[in-house]
């Protein structure tokens, strides 16, 4: 089933797709969805980010099989970086080189802590398309990755969550200005989804709506202001975002 958040006259509403309608539900994370009776035609809605996470994590050391030689590791991204399909990625003037990374993103469905191997799928609501935008020129300046990972619009997600998909081998295609620049699969990740969630929940609690960007298996590409980005994941959706110029950064204080 496809789950999403859309803009209505009354504000954001959670919806589930049934046939050719997006039908409003009371809670995307309920064990059984409760429909309100209100609905919208497919193709006539404005998508919002599919969730409003409290926690956004990205997996480091997960760009290909060779990373299996390294221990798993994660980094935080600000939840304020999350934007939806069609929203802009903003590159502040002076930020330096920036890359987009097409990634499978998982959405947590319920409280998750100390998960055991083989049981993690029961704690996942579903999967969506993610873009882990990274100011690569900032990485040498900040080993905590705040400067590199938390720019405005640096985590596009959407347009919806797919609940009935196997994450093991999903094709990922990245296009910049309608040209294919990268093509890979979730199968190429060093650490699979089950292993990632076992690792992550051994260190922290995740809750409904939290997001894990599972890694970029050769799906990174440089972008500049004025570019358009499209990330396609087989069996889920295509996520499209323009890249825009932001304001100049204020000068840093001197010692």
TrEMBL record:
Coiled coil: none
Ranges of residues in domain Rv2993c-like N-terminal: 1-50
UniProt record similarity statement: Belongs to the FAH family.
GO molecular function: catalytic activity; metal ion binding
Protein name stated in the entry: DUF2437 domain-containing protein
GO biological process assignments: small molecule metabolic process
Protein keywords: Metal-binding
Alphabetized Pfam families for the sequence: FAA_hydrolase, Rv2993c-like_N
Presence of the UniProt keyword Mitochondrion in the record: no
Gene3D superfamilies named among the record's database cross-references: Fumarylacetoacetase-like, C-terminal domain (3.90.850.10)
Residue ranges of domain Fumarylacetoacetase-like C-terminal in the record: 68-244
Keyword Lipid biosynthesis assigned: no
PANTHER family: FUMARYLACETOACETATE HYDROLASE DOMAIN-CONTAINING PROTEIN 2A, FUMARYLACETOACETATE HYDROLASE DOMAIN-CONTAINING PROTEIN 2A-RELATED
InterPro entries, A to Z: FAH, Fumarylacetoacetase-like_C, Fumarylacetoacetase_C_sf, Rv2993c-like_N
